[in-house]
Amino acid sequence: MSFSNDVRNELARVIPDKKCCQMAELSALLAMRADIGFNRDGELTLYTTMENAAQARKVYTLLKETFGLASTVHILQKKRFKKSRIYQVQTHLDNPEGSALLGKLELSEAGIKRQVNWKAIRKNCCKRSFLRGVFVSSGFINRPEGNYHLEIVFNDSRMASDVLRITHKLGLDARLTERKNNLLIYIKESETIVDFLRLVEASNALLEFENVRIIKSMRNQVNRQVNCETANLAKTVEASVRQVEMIKSILARIGIKGIPPHLREIAMLRMDHPDSTLRELGLLLDPPLTKSGVAYRMAKLERIADTIDQSME
Ligand SMILES: [Zn+2]
After folding, report:
1. Exposure winner among 73, 96, 259, 300, fewest CB in 10 A?
2. Which domains does the chain have, with CATH numbers?
3. Centre of ligand 1 from the C-alpha of residue 36, in Å
4. Is there a contact between 271 and 256 (Cβ–Cβ < 8 Å)?
């Protein structure tokens, strides 16, 4: 199952304690997913369509908790995609509870407005619940192992810009963009995605996200270190190749006797151990020499090579 589904299902099971928040979340779910119409018997009915049972159960529970409305859940087959089912919560509104819902959420028989009812989400707790409802309806999030990406898809521009305002009021740095015929709000920064998950109370997802984020940053650190070591090794080899060439050219032109006695041993060691660092060469000497001591002798050998070059010109 996708990480998106995991997060949506986790959030579908979160039912806020406070009535104000329950109301806010219900209004989000309805604004995103519901339609109003008349059923075959001519009864005014609310149809809320969801993709899975957990989401449908949430709508069912919130309608019951907030307005005492009873609903029925129907499983429908999508015609175009044979395998996929959708879950439709049907709620009759021809009753006092239904009228209360229509009045309180400012819905009408004419249809559901795809916009935010700001009066219903004045408090921050309610804004967060609203955002959770929106994400349960149409949110996607990448597994933290991949690229950091969270998005919410809208097919209505008013709803999209309203929800964007909510994210900004909650301090989330979200952006709005267009893809094909849809609008989407997205977040790319891992910090902000973590904040989002915390605000909507996706605790399991938050934990998993943080764990992977820590592992990833450790792995980056190790990679950086390995890259650094590789670069140093390349430098050592490059320098060694140069030194071996230089010593060979001295030997070819003036022989071992041309090299002062105290430099002979290091010259021979370098020829025998082309892969060693200067520090390692120093340890092979008796008595051992420090890295800078070896470097100093190597520089002297270079000077000898230079002098020979100049005298040959
Ligand atoms: Zn609230």
Report:
1. 96
2. 3-201 (3.10.28.10), 235-312 (no CATH)
3. 26
4. no
pLDDT in tens, 104-154: 888 877 778 888 889 889 999 999 999 999 999 999 999 998 899 999 999
Give tens-digit pLDDT for 101-113.
988 888 877 778 8
Q: How far apart are CA 44 and CA 112, in angstroms?
A: 13
- Token pair, residue 164, equals 């964007």
Tokens 């075959």 -> residue: 40
| Count of other CB atoms within 10 angstroms of residue 129 | 30
The residues placing their C-beta within 5 Å of ligand 1, an ion, are 18, 20-21, 123, 125-126
Distance of CA 128 from the midpoint of ligand 1 (Å): 8
How many angstroms separate the alpha carbon of residue 129 from the centre of ligand 1?
A: 7
Cα separation, 252 vs 309, whole angstroms: 12
Span from the CA of 71 to the centroid of ligand 1 (angstroms): 24
Structure tokens at 185: 């709000």
**Backbone angles phi and psi of 252, in degrees to 5:** -65, -35
Contacts of 277 (CB under 8 A, 6+ apart): 236, 291
Please state the three-class secondary structure of the chain as a single string. Answer: CCHHHHHHHHHHCCCCCCHHHHHHHHHHHHHHHEEEEECCCCCEEEEEEECCHHHHHHHHHHHHHHHCCCEEEEEEECCCCCCCEEEEEEEECCCHHHHHHHHHCCCECCECCCCCCHHHHCCHHHHHHHHHHHHHHHEEECCCCCCCCEEEEECCHHHHHHHHHHHHHCCCCCEEEEECCEEEEEECCHHHHHHHHHHCCCHHHHHHHHHHHHHHHHHHHHHHHHHHHHHHHHHHHHHHHHHHHHHHHHHHHHCHHHCCHHHHHHHHHHHHCCCCCHHHHHHHCCCCCCHHHHHHHHHHHHHHHHHHHHHHC
